[in-house]
Amino acid sequence: MPRLVLGLGNPGSQYRQTRHNVGFRVVEEFARRQGLSFEDEPARDECGSRVVSQGELTLALPQTFMNRSGYAARCLVEVHGFAPEEILVVYDEVALPLGRLRLRRGGSPAGHRGIESILQQLRTDQIPRLRLGVGRGERPLENEGEIDPQPLVNLADFVLAPFAVDERETVAAMILRAADACAAWAADGADSAMARFNN
User: Fold this and answer.
1) What per-residue confidence (pLDDT) applies to 24?
2) Any catalytic annotation for residue 20?
3) Catalytic residue, candidates 3, 6, 8, 20
């Protein structure tokens, strides 16, 4: 079955280390494992994305800004003919604790503008997605394991900021595990990948 793994982020070196770009970093790591590199393909394709392919597997990084990711996704679908179930969107999720992964078959965008744009443009909410926990800048409470539901900072500023030094080890481990999840989804399908990585 053809597969498209679509990492979300913002183009430009100033955004590379931000929380909003962790989807790009996961797909870049997945590409590296396949012996592919987006650095070898600096030009945008006809869909305004950076794309590398190997057999029936296509990896893409839209070069639209996050909130317009749907335009690139729709073009990739129209040009390459991917069905909704053949697409995995990889993106940051403030509703998950830092380092947590959640693979889903579909559902609402839950306030994420990038996935909202994709669902609108593809006219379905049944798009598989891999959500990457980046937290919300929460304040720990006295009871271990609990957090204050009120974020410490404006969320728009938070996702456009780089990870703190003490978060980077957790983020690096999450990127490796998320690349494993992408590989499992591409090779074995959603059910197998969900069973392995949603815990």
Assistant:
1) 97
2) yes
3) 20
